[in-house]
Amino acid sequence: MSGDDAIKTPIEDVEGGWLHQLVIYAATNPWEFCWYLLLCLSPMFFISAMLSWKLAKALEAQEKDKSRKEKRKANMNKVRAKSH
């Protein structure tokens, strides 16, 4: 296909791969494309939110455990210092 033919040929008539067809579909049906995109990505957003929440809880528990161990160690050192 020469450069002149590409200018005259509408983009819908050009054969292409799946990505080309997807771009054509998105250009001709933008709202439907956005709807399908959100529909397909919604489970990923949900999984991401759940994993973020789980990570936040794990970090919070780790911080509590660390502070509890530090308090315990400080108390043990106080008791040992008083007994000597």
Automatic annotation (TrEMBL):
Compositional bias segments (type: Basic residues): 69-84
List the residue ranges of the region (Disordered).
Answer: 63-84
Q: List the coiled-coil residues.
A: none
A GO-annotated cellular component: membrane
Alphabetized UniProt keyword annotations: Coiled coil, Membrane, Transmembrane, Transmembrane helix
What's the protein's topology in the membrane? Answer: Single-pass membrane protein
Localization, UniProt: Membrane
UniProt superkingdom:
Eukaryota
Listed transmembrane segments: 35-56
Family, according to the entry, reads as follows: Belongs to the SMIM15 family.
Q: What is this protein called?
A: Small integral membrane protein 15
Native organism: Scylla paramamosain (Mud crab)
